[in-house]
Task: inverse folding
């Protein structure tokens, strides 16, 4: 006899099921009662666009979880709509005092300890680009549902959960300011349900009067000015990129449902021609790097660990929820990166070379 | 030698200051002349007494002073010639030559055939930059920044050149 067949167990199981149903109905009624106006899709779209019209100052805490540890940062943030932002690191101590100013797509990183300012160009800062090119894919793979009301940084919020349509698991939860639609808190989840990262405002004040000097990109006296990362948007013409790689690349045959090859780029890194394939389901992305120069990854001081699959020794590191897995196979060197746990990434890696 | 040895000559004999020929003559005279031998023994006793007294009163240099002297000696900069001579000693010359050979190998095309490397930080940064383009990602590139700053404070990944207009241009030159 199993426990599940005992009368007591049946009673408890029935009671639990009832409680779950009651909670679900209660949540639905609460959502219907308090949020009967906008639909969650419209609210999500509004939240993505909110920084273009809302100015604020505040303090944001971000915690990123790997499988067995967490890293946290605290930044003071000043944002003047539509596209001026300064982030000033409060923690960790190694970054204390450093700050980053973004002006549209330009990013200025001020390293106060080394007296150096690095200027980069990141198209991801272009809100419009992100909104138009990827939001529809999010809705293809995720179902947004209301998850009740709350309070973050003394502001009334509406919570929306994005449920993966294929697995039924929640992937993301955002708390959106009811008045301004700014995202005040966000939690991302692993497929296992574990929290992968959490970002939230600890303090927030909306204001339109932030002095221009806050966003000055003038380097302080004595600072070295350096060119930084200058990222162009990879092409969506994947076939053209693969053709330009100069070798026959492999593609993973087993990806989480909803992921598709979205973009690609060919880059020469340290003299090595490297193909970068970007898979995305709209919310998450997986990068597969390949080269035929036998160029292994140099982990430097990152202290990689080793795992094995299909007779291959693969090195990996975890950077918060992001895992990097590298190995060599069939004359190619591979690097797989994603906000996935190691077993998920290994499963994908197995399918790269059949 | 029939003349008696003078006191100065006896003192010089005691202290071994005579030439070998004079020392031999003095030695022969002392063997035959009891007066001079008595004078020699008195002088020898006196010398030994003075030596013992001096040794008893000898003061050892304080340890701190000794240490300071040795410190000065160790810190004394050798001349260029002596430095060069030191480097040419086999104990240094052989390892240095071996290091130069190994370094030369890795700097040569032969070593490159063994396989170049790609900074792992490049993979994390490039992925983070692309991930930041999803609508609900960390807005702006704070995630890219933190990856660079925290994962590898001494990032040195380099992007050399663009490829056919499709690729990243410029250099990831020590993002941190």
Result:
């Amino acid at each position: 006899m199993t426990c599940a067949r005992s009368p007591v167990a049946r009673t408890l199981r029935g009671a639990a099921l009832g409680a779950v149903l009651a909670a679900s109905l209660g949540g639905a009624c609460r959502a219907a009662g308090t949020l009967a106006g906008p639909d969650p899709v419209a609210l999500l779209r509004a939240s993505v666009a909110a920084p273009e019209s809302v100015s604020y100052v505040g303090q944001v805490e971000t915690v990123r979880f790997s499988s067995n540890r967490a890293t946290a940062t605290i930044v003071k943030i000043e944002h003047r709509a539509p596209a001026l932002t300064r982030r000033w690191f409060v923690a960790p101590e190694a970054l204390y005092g450093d700050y980053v100013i973004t002006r549209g797509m330009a990013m200025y990183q001020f390293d106060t300890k080394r007296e150096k300012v690095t200027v980069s160009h990141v198209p991801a800062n272009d809100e419009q680009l992100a909104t138009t090119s990827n939001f529809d894919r999010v809705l293809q793979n995720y179902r947004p549902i209301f998850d009740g009301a709350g309070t973050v940084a003394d502001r009334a919020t509406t919570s929306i959960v994005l449920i993966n349509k294929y697995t039924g698991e929640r992937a993301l939860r955002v708390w959106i300011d009811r008045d301004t639609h700014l995202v005040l808190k966000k939690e991302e989840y692993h497929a296992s349900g574990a929290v992968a990262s959490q970002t939230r405002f600890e303090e927030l004040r909306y204001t339109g009067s932030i002095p221009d000097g806050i966003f000055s990109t003038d380097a302080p006296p004595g600072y070295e000015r350096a060119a930084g990362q200058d990222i162009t948007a990879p092409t969506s013409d994947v076939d053209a990129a693969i053709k330009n790689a100069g070798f026959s690349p492999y593609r993973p045959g087993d990806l989480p449902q909803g992921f598709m090859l979205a973009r690609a780029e060919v880059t020469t890194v340290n003299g090595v021609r490297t193909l970068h394939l970007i898979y995305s389901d709209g919310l998450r992305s997986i990068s597969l790097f390949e080269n035929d120069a036998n160029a292994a990854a140099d982990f430097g001081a990152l202290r990689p660990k080793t795992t094995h699959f299909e007779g291959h020794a693969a090195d990996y590191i975890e950077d918060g929820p992001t895992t990097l897995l590298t190995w060599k196979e069939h004359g190619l060197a591979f690097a797989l990166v994603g906000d996935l746990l190691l077993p998920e990434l290994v499963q994908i890696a197995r399918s790269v070379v059949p | 030698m029939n003349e008696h040895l003078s006191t100065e000559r006896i003192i010089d004999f005691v202290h071994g200051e005579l030439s070998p020929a004079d020392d031999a003559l003095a030695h022969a005279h002392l063997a035959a002349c009891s007066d001079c031998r008595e004078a020699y023994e008195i002088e020898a006793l006196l010398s030994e007494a003075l030596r013992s007294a001096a040794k008893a009163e000898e003061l050892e240099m304080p340890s701190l002073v000794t240490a300071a002297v040795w410190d000065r000696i160790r810190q004394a900069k050798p001349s260029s010639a002596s430095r060069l001579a030191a480097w040419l000693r086999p104990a240094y010359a052989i390892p240095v030559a071996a290091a130069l050979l190994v370094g030369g190998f890795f700097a040569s095309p032969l070593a490159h055939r063994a396989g170049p490397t790609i900074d792992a930080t490049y993979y994390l940064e490039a992925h983070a930059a692309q991930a930041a383009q999803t609508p609900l990602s960390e807005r702006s590139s704070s995630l890219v920044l933190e990856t660079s700053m925290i994962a590898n404070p001494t990032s040195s990944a380099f992007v050399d050149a663009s490829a056919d207009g499709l690729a990243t241009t410029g250099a990831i030159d020590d993002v941190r």
User: Anything to note?
Assistant: Chain B has two domains: 1-75, 116-176. Residues 34-56 of chain B form the longest helix (23 residues). Chain B touches chain A through 57 residues (CB under 8 Å).
